Structures are given as structure tokens and as C-alpha cells.
Amino acid sequence: MDLDEYRRMAAAGERHWWYSSTRQLLELLMGPHLPQQDGTTLYLDAAGGSGATGFWLAERAVTALVDIEPEALSFATQRWTGYRSVQSDIGHLPHPDDVFDASLCVTALCHELVPEPASVVAELARVTKPGGIVCLMEPGVRRLRRGHDVVTHSARRFSVGDLRELIVGAGLEPIRATGAYSFLIPPATVMALFERGEAHSDVGRNESGLGGLLGALASAERRVIRRVNLPFGLSVLALGRKPR
User: Fold this and answer.
1) Residue ranges of domains in the chain
2) At what angle do helices 3-12 and 70-79 cross, to 10 degrees?
């Protein structure tokens, strides 16, 4: 990812509506499955960048923040004391087997530097403890190519079924697989037509979410996701448990 994008993410992480909504969404899905915190609890935020989507884990327990970009790790560890930075390729984690109580990976499998997403998910499963959970979140709508994809060097998008297959393929027991931000698909499609593949970051756009409207829609959608899985969304998520 461009360093300027990491800087934008670090600056906007606590105030941008999408990051705030995404943290709430991740807590909604992961929270009920996290273990009781004690002095031995460890979490993993894989390819967590500036920490904008995963710092809520670091506020709960010590969290290994793994990323290839040292400047992104510096942003995160200076801001949130619960992070422990590890510079590494997430496809070859330096950790032993069965270390983490939960592993989170947000918008990394889509990256052009990840030739085989399945091998990364297998690596996340390897370092997660038996009984622990792995959560994936990636861009949805396979055929949609937007300016933000150019900035973030995204090579692919996923369906809900794609992420569920990755969870199952890594030997994990599927818990949830759902779409999110379904209400953003129509405007994102229109924007993609106007941008025509030019680089445009979403991080600097509409931090307030149209004066709170988008955040309110995300909140309403989360109330639905609490009860049922959505078949599609501009983002897709899957949650799996490592067998005991």
C-alpha cells in the first residue's frame, strides 16, 4: 500500500465513519467468541497497518500487529500501547503453532502481493490456538474495480462464499459468513464508472459519512447482521473456529 495511504488511515482511523463502523461490526461478530481475558490472552492483527480497524483488540489484550511496512507499525504502536509490532510477511508468520486466542485479518487477502489467499488463511489457522477464532474481512463484489482498489493495490475481490470456502479449506469450523455495507454497492458502482480505474482513496472522502447518514445506515445494517447473514455486500466477512 502507498505510504500516503497509511498516513491517511492513521489520521482518520478514530474519526472516519467507515473505520468506526467497521470496528463495531468486528466486535459484533468476534466479541461473543473471544475468550475471557487474562494475563495469557494474545490476539493477532495480521496486516493491520496503522491499526485503524483492529485497535479495539489491542485495548482488550496484548495484540501482535504484523505488517510488512515499518512506518505503518510505527503509527500504530505509538498510538495504542496494547500493540506489539512484528515486521513480517503474513504468509510466513514468525510465530509458533497455537499461540493466539483470536486472529484478525482485514483487507489483506485482496492485495496483489498475496498470490495465494488460501495459504495465508492456513497460516492464520496454524498460529491460532485450538478453540480460537479467525476472522477475515475483504472487499466484496467480485467484478467491481474502483479507484480505491488502485490506491490499495488490490488484485481481487471476494464473495461471501469465497471467504467461507477459505475458512473451511484451512480446517476451521465456520461460524459466520456475511456481507456488509450492502447499501454502498450502488454508489460504489456509479463511482467506479466515473473514476475509470484512476487512483482515488476513500479515506479522505466524507469522513462524517454524509453528516452521519452512512454511519446510521451501517448501524441499522448491523442490527440485521446480528440476526442473519447477508448474501452480499461491498465488504464480506467470515469467522471460523479452530477445532479443539
Assistant:
1) 3-241
2) 10
| pLDDT single digits (tens) 211-232 | 899 999 999 999 999 999 999 9
What is the per-residue pLDDT across 70-118, written as a single tens digit (0 to 9) for each? Answer: 888 988 888 889 999 999 999 999 999 999 999 999 999 998 888 999 9
158, 230 contact by CB (below 8 A): no
Task: Give the bridge partners for 37, in sequence order.
Answer: none
Query: Is the CB of residue 212 less than 8 Å from the CB of residue 156?
Result: no
User: pLDDT (tens digit, 9 = 90+) per residue, 33-48?
Assistant: 998 888 899 999 999 9
Rg of the chain over all Cα atoms, to the nearest angstrom: 17
Q: Are 13 and 52 in contact (CB under 8 A)?
A: yes
User: What pLDDT digit, counting tens, does each position of 112-150 carry?
Assistant: 888 999 999 999 999 999 999 999 999 999 888 765 555
Q: CATH for 3-241?
A: 3.40.50.150
Do residues 164 and 229 lie in contact, with contact meaning Cβ atoms separated by under 8 Å? no
Residue 140 has, within 13 A of its CA and on its CB side, a CA count of 27
Whose CA is closest to 124, among 156, 100, 159? 100
**In whole angstroms, what is the distance from residue 194 CA to residue 180 CA?**
23
* Maximum CA extent, the chain: 51
Contact by Cβ (8 Å): 128, 97: no
Is the CB of residue 59 less than 8 Å from the CB of residue 82? yes
Torsion of CA 4, 148, 236, 214, to 10 degrees: 90
